[in-house]
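Below is the record:
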Amino acid sequence: MFKDDLERALGPLVGADTLTLEPGAEADALVMRYLRDNLRIRVDGLDLEASLLESGEDDLDLEPVWWLIVQYPAPSPVTELHVRNTLLFDVYDDQRNVFKFVHFPDEKQRTFYFAEGESEHVVRF
């Protein structure tokens, strides 16, 4: 995510208009709290718990970004996901999110578009 957009979204979680993210445990905890509130994945009626594998700061075409790698372990092989994605909808009325899902080990890929009014999709592999 663009770092300034994410900082703007996280500000209200700490009672501020905005904040400045610095890599570390405090930022990871705050970003994961926001992620858990705005990206929900359900399998067989159960919400999967996100676990952070890595995160950091980088530049994408000279624009500061905040990236993360998150894993959602499931108790059994997954053939269908129910996904609700409202990331940054609280920041921008016209926010659009494109997500690519990859199923392993067959590496079958599915891409979905999330927007206001289209924040939930069923992903089948």
